[in-house]
Amino acid sequence: MTDRLTAFERTLLSELAGEGDRSPAGLAVALETDLGTVLETTAALQDRGLLARQGFDTCRVSDRGRALVERSRPA
Fold first, then answer.
1. Each residue of 19-60: pLDDT tens digit?
2. Alpha carbon 37 to chain centroid distance?
3. Which of 40, 45, 66, 70 could form a Cys-Cys staple with 50, CB 3.0–4.6 A?
């Protein structure tokens, strides 16, 4: 399992870390991308333990994901 993030993965996790729980559709609007991209990315992040899903409508950054976002922020 790698802690490397793409720019889009970092942006998505940062959005969740800052704004709290969001739906995939809400993330797509906030990030100005399509729902398919958000669903693929959230599934990959969930597989890596960086994001949790509750049902279909809620995405939440995990503690591990939040820590990774914090470490990747510029000083």
1. 888 999 999 999 999 999 999 999 999 999 999 988 778 999
2. 12
3. 45
